[in-house]
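Appendix B. Chain record.
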Amino acid sequence: MTSATVILALFPVAPGLGAGAETNGPPAVAVTGGMISSTLLTLVVPAVCSLVENFIQRWRKQHPRSAEA
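Structure tokens predicted for this chain:
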């Protein structure tokens, strides 16, 4: 929730419009990009890995390996 607040708060600053835009714009872009990437790496990637792991476990229960090998 905090990450979403920071990302949304920096969106108006990132385009670099208004007074002080040349000094505030680039850091806002960097911080926004960092917050988005860290949010994806800490929330989305583990969730996807968990879903894939559960799918593989269900697949193995439904399709057991034969003893032919």
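Further analysis of this model is presented in Appendix C.
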